[in-house]
Amino acid sequence: MAQIFDLDMIQAVYDRYPARVAAARKAVGKPLTLTEKILYTHLWDGEANTVFGRGKDYVDFAPDRVAMQDATAQMALLQFKTTGRKQVAVPSTVHCDHLIQARVGAKEDLKEALLKSNEVFNFLESISNKYGIGFWKPGAGIIHQVVLEQYAFPGGLMIGTDSHTVNAGGLGMVAIGVGGADACDVMSGLAWELKWPKIIGVKLTGKLSGWASSKDVILKVAGILTVKGGTGAIVEYFGPGAESLSCTGKGTICNMGAEIGATTSTFGYDDSMRRYLKGTGRTELADMADKVAEHLNGDPEVYADPEKYFDQVIELDLNTLEPHVNGPFTPDLAWPISKFAAAVKENNWPEELEVGLIGSCTNSSYEDLTRSASIAQQAVDKKLKVKSEFTITPGSEQVRYTAERDGILETFDKMGGVVLANACGPCIGQWARHTNDPNRKNSIITSFNRNFAKRNDGNPNTHAFVAGPEIVTAMAIAGRLSFNPLTDELVNEEGVKVKLDEPKGLELPPQGFDVKDAGFKAPASDGASVEVIVKPDSERLQLLEPFAAWNGKNITDAVVLIKAKGKCTTDHISMAGPWLRYRGHLDNISNNTLIGATNAFNGETDKVKNQLTGEYGAVPAMQRDYKTKGQPSIIVGDHNYGEGSSREHAAMQPRFLGVSAVLVKSFARIHETNLKKQGMLALTFVTEADYDKIQEDDRIDFTDLTSFAPNKPLTLVFKHKDGSSDTIMCNQTYNEAQIGWFKAGSALNIIREAQKG
Asked: Which structural domain range is residue 707 located in?
């Protein structure tokens, strides 16, 4: 029987559910959504006695657990190490999945990763062992799939240092991506703060059939809401269509909800979750959930009249939902498959498809692999030569082992596919792509989530499209983007026209899951004697020094480091790919700060004017010069600045290099929080058009920072080279506690002082 983790903790959560839901219903004075039930049940202060304003009130919560992937865990645990605590306060895990580069295949790639990143893996294993953290070794699987298989439970609240933590919503959790500083708070036994979210309801009717898959639900929703339409909101799926989906299908939908900016997404507890819990060896947990099942869904009145209870309602009929292909360069450009071929031609996108990639945290379940394998088998049976490269990334060792046992991986092999390690690989830029020209214009298609320029292979001219794994497999066989498997025929090696049949798959393995070594290592019961070694001359790891506290004065005569134009995600601010090796070394990774952002003044990347010398150079180099000379600086940005990731390095790096403030048209939620945690000023224009007034040579004075207070805009004077000036009003969303973080230099500084006391 599989090990069931933290049953006592889960039982305690369920024991308090009835009373806390009742208290919340009384406080709110109306029926509750599932989202509200989970949030009100996890209030730091216990039972609810007030109603919180959606999108307005900051609220303290008590998450049930913390999950960290290896790239972000380094900085989270380096921060935790400085707190002085002996053990984490809540169940926590580390998952080694990001530092394995996809090159040639699973065995070789894992071996190479163990050689290249051994120092980091050993650090993570030892620090996990010391502080009571569960450790999932390299090759164990992708964090979000492992969490779904091992830790997620209906009605729970968890945070994770990755934006796709939301995958756990497939099992009815509210699972939220955060930065390492937030994780550090919770592991230190402190409350976790979140602005009470708005709630978007998505009513699903009908049932998927044919080529349509769960992926198409979120591809369609992304087209409706765009990359920022879910910002500050939790998406709650409901209706008969929701109940018809598999648990892992629900996870797929929640997972990619990160690409609409949503705080998280979730589904109510139903039979598919029950089947999945039992299928993954957690029957006892399913029995526990059954006893409180009435509390693990929204109230019936909510779903009967959703417009009264949700801030926005979207309705989708799964009976008529077409397969979609989204992209290129943004995950919200949604094309129904029937219109995609015309779009390819009209936009002059490269029609030849060079690579198809399936898997990742969102589409790497047993069900996904079986549906794709049913297409792959047809390529063999119908004598079709596969025209594109094709790779497969299993979600976990448990999935991989079971798929191998059941002959699924052999099917992919016969088709010519390459099975990669149970890791993130190409999805996050950890892909040593086989190409003679790394800059040529080309097309790939994936079942991943993100497809921003340079995301997968570092090539700005790679047109990356996103679709369900079945469509990806079919297109890889055809070798062209214009292929529609629903209508089009292919010519096989014998010159015969053939048509692909609809995919067929299995929700769960008929013989059950199996695995020899899932890859888990439990921590020491007492880690006091465990030594965590960080070499002083390490290129990969660096112990942290506290950031300096605010000097209590207005910032004056600051310069503009960069005025970023257009899309500026956390990838633009702190790239992944090769830079992942420095995630535990703040000084070294700071050399990638904003090198991907477009400078509004010259349209170039990584080329900004040094206001002290007049020379142009790389962004990090210019900012290091400012820091050395004590010159204050600010960053100016566009809409949805910091989109796409929980990556706190995007906040820590500018802070480390001495930037004082970030002023933008709008923020992505996680990034704004991360800036606040690190003691930086995160500001937005009161009037967006003021962005256009900012000039390259400006000097900036803060006039009222000394009276920094909640709900009070800050005033900045931009002094232009010609002697004129513009006074620009800036909104801020800081509460008293967050202002305290700014004054202290970071939230961590406050935690550290509290532990000393």
From this structure: 558-756
